[in-house]
TrEMBL record, chains A, B:
The keyword DNA-binding applies. GO terms for molecular function: DNA-binding transcription factor activity; transcription cis-regulatory region binding. Residues 15-75 form the HTH tetR-type domain. Keywords: DNA-binding. PROSITE patterns: HTH_TETR_2 (PS50977). This is TetR family transcriptional regulator. It comes from the Bacteria. SUPFAM superfamilies: Homeodomain-like, Tetracyclin repressor-like, C-terminal domain. InterPro entries: Homeodomain-like_sf (IPR009057), HTH-type_TetR-like_transc_reg (IPR050109), HTH_TetR (IPR001647), KstR2_TetR_C (IPR041490), Tet_transcr_reg_TetR-rel_C_sf (IPR036271). It comes from Kibdelosporangium phytohabitans. Residues 38-57 bind DNA. The lineage of its organism: Bacteria, Bacillati, Actinomycetota, Actinomycetes, Pseudonocardiales. Pfam families: TetR_C_24 (PF17932), TetR_N (PF00440).
Length: 204, 204
């Protein structure tokens, strides 16, 4: 697995030690999974003692939760910003897919953890993240509904179509690496075209 | 995670003890990941001693390889059977997506392991599985090329389009569970329609 974490992840997390622990955790979770990682592994990779880790995070699960919640919140804010404007549904959908795909390509290591380690979250933390996911899906679904209403989209099932739109973007995190032929931006544009076709739009 | 393994997995694997170990392994890999599983966990779940496990598989990685190779071979055979016939590209693609999606929904626990634990394979075993994956991608890509040639598909980039077709199906393994509103078969049909649209087909 190519491990490459953008330098600008979590600029808002303070102090530096906490951010360093999140970097170390995400790297190890992506490589050997949540259950294959110990808090000692994370502390060591961040150049700290296990005791110093507990100053910032109460457990390995608390680290996973911080990473997962942040990833979902960023995505929700982006989706809300794009889907919630009053532009034409086709334009909003194009922008949404471009940004969503670009995010999953550029941050593919983080996105893998965010998407594939969900089941490792304790029940209460899982519920918080599941609620964020539902809101993301709802925004996409209601954007599709807007397009169906104004005649720019036709889909057999709006819920399944929303699922497929998000699915295409999420799966980018699984296969994307720095060796991919397309930049995250170019891939986003290409996928936006595919999605608009999938939604039965003639604006392609 | 809903653990439900179809009873008819690996009918060709003999003896029963080896098949039982594969069931136990896939269940644990899907639940806590390859790195979160020990050979002792697998042996215990299969009602055997660790020593008895080694009679059938030389290592935990050998179990993962058996599961992964079998999943990829089944998929390749299906893709080859459907894509390699001389029907119209639209009909072949519809059938391919229906079967591919149905496989990933019905066997979602196995498919998760097959798709998401790839990086845990040792280099030689990884190479075998990667070669099977490339052949699957090539069949899909050349089916798209057939459709472009006879005018039934139009895509900006055949390689990216093939990736997107497979991506949609693979991601089903991530989100599908027995609680999903659609049966594997119904989901396959719905996704086939979405894919044909994505490929610019008018036959939808």
């Amino acid at each position: 697995m190519t491990m490459s974490l953008p330098a600008d992840l979590w600029p808002e997390v303070k102090p530096d030690a906490a951010r360093r622990l999140m970097y170390a955790a995400v790297e190890s979770f992506a490589r050997v999974g949540f259950h294959g990682t110990t808090t000692r592994d994370i502390a060591t990779a961040a150049g700290m003692s296990p005791a110093a880790l507990y100053v910032h995070f109460s457990s390995k699960a608390a680290l996973l939760f911080a990473i997962s919640r942040d990833g979902h919140q960023q995505t929700l804010e982006m989706v809300q910003r794009v889907a919630g404007t009053d532009g034409a549904p086709v334009d909003r959908m194009r922008l949404l897919v471009e940004r969503f795909v670009e995010w999953h390509a550029r941050r593919h290591v983080v996105a893998r953890v965010v998407q594939y380690e969900l089941e490792a979250l304790p029940a209460d933390e899982y519920a918080v993240v599941a609620a964020l996911r539902r809101r993301i899906e709802q925004f996409v679904q209601s954007l599709i509904a807007d397009g169906v209403k104004d005649g720019s989209f036709t889909v057999p099932d709006e819920k399944i179509a929303a699922r497929a739109v998000l699915s295409l973007g999420i799966d980018v995190a699984r296969w994307y690496s720095e060796r991919a032929r397309k930049t995250p931006k170019a891939l986003g544009r290409e996928y936006a075209t595919l999605v608009l076709r999938m939604l039965g739009s003639s604006a392609r």
